[in-house]
Amino acid sequence: MDFEYQVNITPEEICELYKIDVHDFLVLVEGKKTIRDEKTILYVIEEYILTLKMNRIKSELTIKYYITVLRKFARFLLLKKSEYKMVDLTEELFFEFTDTCKPRKEEKLTARTFKTYQAIIKNVMDFAHTRRYVSEDLRFKIEKFRGELLPRYLPDELIPQILNQAKQTNWPFLNFALIYFLLGTGCRVSEVANLRICDFQIHEDLIFIRKGKGNRQRYIPMYPQVKKVILDFLARTGVYHWDIRDESYLFSKRCYENREPIMIRNIQRMVTGIYEKIGIKGAYTVHSLRHTFAYNSLSAGMAIYDLQEILGHNSIETTTIYTKRRPIDLKNAVNKYPFPLEKLVAQIMGIGEN
């Protein structure tokens, strides 16, 4: 049996009464799943950047990197001279953008950088949905990157070469100490640049990381040789007695007082310059020092969950990347358990039989 209802209130009045959007109400009533596309990608990017600048969770370095990538994406869109709406942000458009982001001529983005770019753009899409600029989460339009990210470990024979070359630079004691510290702690370059003398807690053999990724803090163990190298460096720069109240920067080109921090980009340039001197530039990055620490720790029998804490990984999945063996290790494993191929072929083909 059908019933007829007489409604004496308009949709506009309902929306005014309950403080909801008329468009959203009509979509709900009509059972449609439409997407509001009035906001352009450029508009949402600018709004997202404003939100990023007020973010207190991500580190300053991360925020700066996000903004750099987003500005690059905005310039790409402006050059196309088309007002792309959020619903136009597809995987094809993203791929077209990344194809223009070649760090050097005829070179594509690395898998790691590509994955980071993708995460940033998908964050913008999530932001648009949260702000109700679109009525549907559009992140499904860009499929999650499935490419494998392989860490780059430094072979054992290269480490002495790198350390010896550090001694030939303009700041030999500083650069030697920096590289030794990176190899012996697995810290990120950004974390090292922010270390203070009081963070290097020699009595507890602990190092306090005050500004890790996402502004997270943690303690990491101090290996005896790392401790010896850093104390030697401090003594050479005028710090003869460790003081827990000393908040001067640990790594600095300045001696004694007024120890100014060394810039992150200067550490990166220094390491890259050393790689170039010994003929391995392009094969490894500054982050390879961190990868090498992780690999050596696991090889020595460290539990992966302990390594996760030391590296400051939020997810164990990130740490498992370092469980992948080096090609030389796989080769040695094969040689250790050889497959009798020659004998098998001889039996099948009759080779060697009289």
UniProtKB/TrEMBL annotation:
Organism: Paenibacillus odorifer
Record keywords, A-Z: DNA recombination, DNA-binding
Domain Core-binding (CB) residues, every copy: 39-129
Pfam family, one: Phage_int_SAM_5
Gene3D superfamilies per UniProt: 1.10.150.130, Intergrase catalytic core (1.10.443.10)
Protein name: Integrase
Domain of life: Bacteria
Family named by the database record: Belongs to the 'phage' integrase family.
InterPro entries named in the record: CB (IPR044068), DNA_brk_join_enz (IPR011010), Integrase-like_cat_sf (IPR013762), Integrase_catalytic (IPR002104), Integrase_recombinase_N (IPR010998), SAM-like_dom (IPR025269), Tyrosine_recombinase_XerCD (IPR050090)
Start and end residues of each Tyr recombinase domain: 149-335
Gene Ontology BP terms: DNA integration; DNA recombination
GO MF: DNA binding
